[in-house]
Amino acid sequence: MSLYERLFGEPTVAAHLSDDARLQAMLDVEVALAEAQAAVGIVPASCVDPIRDAARADRYDRGALAREAALAGNLAIPLVHHLTRAVASTHPDASRYVHLGATSQDIIDTGLVLQLKAALPALLAQVDRAATHAAGHARRHRSTPQAGRTWLQQATLITFGLKVAGWLDALDRGRRHLAGAASQSLVLQFGGASGTLAALGADAAAVSRGLAERLQLALPAMPWHAHRDRLAHLACALGVLTGTLGKIARDLALLSQTEVAEVYEAPREGRGSSSTMPHKRNPVSAAVALAASVRAPGLVASVLAGMPQEHERGLGGWHAEWEVVPELVLLTAGAARSVADALENLVVDVARMSSNLAITKGLIHSEAVAVELARHIGKPAAHALVDTCCRRAVSEGRLLVNVLVEDAGVTRFLTPDAINARLLPEASLRQGEAFVDAVLAAWKRSEERRGEHDT
Amino acid sequence: MSLYERLFGEPTVAAHLSDDARLQAMLDVEVALAEAQAAVGIVPASCVDPIRDAARADRYDRGALAREAALAGNLAIPLVHHLTRAVASTHPDASRYVHLGATSQDIIDTGLVLQLKAALPALLAQVDRAATHAAGHARRHRSTPQAGRTWLQQATLITFGLKVAGWLDALDRGRRHLAGAASQSLVLQFGGASGTLAALGADAAAVSRGLAERLQLALPAMPWHAHRDRLAHLACALGVLTGTLGKIARDLALLSQTEVAEVYEAPREGRGSSSTMPHKRNPVSAAVALAASVRAPGLVASVLAGMPQEHERGLGGWHAEWEVVPELVLLTAGAARSVADALENLVVDVARMSSNLAITKGLIHSEAVAVELARHIGKPAAHALVDTCCRRAVSEGRLLVNVLVEDAGVTRFLTPDAINARLLPEASLRQGEAFVDAVLAAWKRSEERRGEHDT
Amino acid sequence: MSLYERLFGEPTVAAHLSDDARLQAMLDVEVALAEAQAAVGIVPASCVDPIRDAARADRYDRGALAREAALAGNLAIPLVHHLTRAVASTHPDASRYVHLGATSQDIIDTGLVLQLKAALPALLAQVDRAATHAAGHARRHRSTPQAGRTWLQQATLITFGLKVAGWLDALDRGRRHLAGAASQSLVLQFGGASGTLAALGADAAAVSRGLAERLQLALPAMPWHAHRDRLAHLACALGVLTGTLGKIARDLALLSQTEVAEVYEAPREGRGSSSTMPHKRNPVSAAVALAASVRAPGLVASVLAGMPQEHERGLGGWHAEWEVVPELVLLTAGAARSVADALENLVVDVARMSSNLAITKGLIHSEAVAVELARHIGKPAAHALVDTCCRRAVSEGRLLVNVLVEDAGVTRFLTPDAINARLLPEASLRQGEAFVDAVLAAWKRSEERRGEHDT
Amino acid sequence: MSLYERLFGEPTVAAHLSDDARLQAMLDVEVALAEAQAAVGIVPASCVDPIRDAARADRYDRGALAREAALAGNLAIPLVHHLTRAVASTHPDASRYVHLGATSQDIIDTGLVLQLKAALPALLAQVDRAATHAAGHARRHRSTPQAGRTWLQQATLITFGLKVAGWLDALDRGRRHLAGAASQSLVLQFGGASGTLAALGADAAAVSRGLAERLQLALPAMPWHAHRDRLAHLACALGVLTGTLGKIARDLALLSQTEVAEVYEAPREGRGSSSTMPHKRNPVSAAVALAASVRAPGLVASVLAGMPQEHERGLGGWHAEWEVVPELVLLTAGAARSVADALENLVVDVARMSSNLAITKGLIHSEAVAVELARHIGKPAAHALVDTCCRRAVSEGRLLVNVLVEDAGVTRFLTPDAINARLLPEASLRQGEAFVDAVLAAWKRSEERRGEHDT
Question: What is the pTM of this model?
Answer without folding.
Answer: 0.97
